């Protein structure tokens, strides 16, 4: 089968031929329907040897959905042909977080030799088939197309967790600001609309992404720039918003988040662009919570899938065949995508 594999650190991945894996005891072979292309994939490609606890080679793609192709001995709960979304982070299985279903914050994932999951040290879904270590990491689909479901396992799950943990500030009359309306942010707008009564203000540098935000349910949109903070405050009646969700996370957006932070409000950093903010008494709004949110739990993925099955969450996708996977990542790197790129096997 064809697979898009990272063979050397800091070198472009290659589309190569590899054998179709055989599921061992307790494992599940999934025929891939779609695999989302994510900025964190690009980050992994760029890292030097030793920066991550796992090593090359492995197949990329941590955002996957498809159909059960074969069950290993003892694997139960699914049948061949069942449509499934694949939960991305695979933890140690024994720490407190993993026992509670939160492999996304596994306490041992950085131990030497550990992997983060399929596409992150283990073979992922940028291939025709992928091997999943346990049925525990599968969420069944009803009517949802795996191509539409694939981005939900990260681009949907990550903003969902950030929002679900912030519902206490999203009371009627509150405002949520979404900074960055890309693959995650456009789903964040929809999730806010589905689970809260908050007014939604979307912020981005790109007019086409602001158009997307309006289509997804944003009440207001603001072009990022020098006057953005004041424009947002005016839209909030002269106040700062109760919740800021930063899906970029660079120096500029975190500085904006700090200026928008409200006393007793909440700022959630989701983007991984590496920005920082000054921290200390008197430097930030009093009693404002600052949270770094990472991916989501297995239970939360089930909730995301349910929202999508009910038509409340619809990823904006651009589909690329596996033979053109380099084009998908190039478009992602250049910021040319509106929504999420999904790679599908050519067959």
Largest beta-sheet characterization: 7 strands, mixed
Radius of gyration: 20 Å
Strands, total number: 18
- The pLDDT mean sits at 96
Strand content: 15-25%
Tell me the distance between the termini.
11 Å
Structural class label = alpha/beta
Helix content: 10-25%
**Domain tally:** 2
What is the fourth-level CATH superfamily of the largest domain? Medium-chain alcohol dehydrogenases, catalytic domain
Discrete helix count: 10
Assembly state (oligomeric): single chain
**Helix-strand topology string:** EEEHEEEHEEEEHHEHEHEHEHEEHEHE
Give the key terms.
347 residues; alpha/beta; Quinone Oxidoreductase, Chain A, domain 1; Rossmann fold; 2 domains; seven-stranded mixed beta sheet; six-stranded parallel beta sheet; 10 helices; 23% strand; globular
Notes on the protein architecture:
This protein is α/β, with parallel strands linked by helices and 347 residues long. The chain has two domains: 2-154 and 296-344, Quinone Oxidoreductase, Chain A, domain 1 (Alpha-Beta Complex), CATH 3.90.180.10; 157-292, Rossmann fold (3-Layer(aba) Sandwich), CATH 3.40.50.720. The protein has ten helices and 18 strands. The strands form four sheets. Strands 3, 5, 6, 9, 10, 17 and 18 form a seven-stranded mixed beta sheet that branches. It is globular, with a radius of gyration of 20 Å. It starts with a strand and ends with a strand. The mean pLDDT is 96.
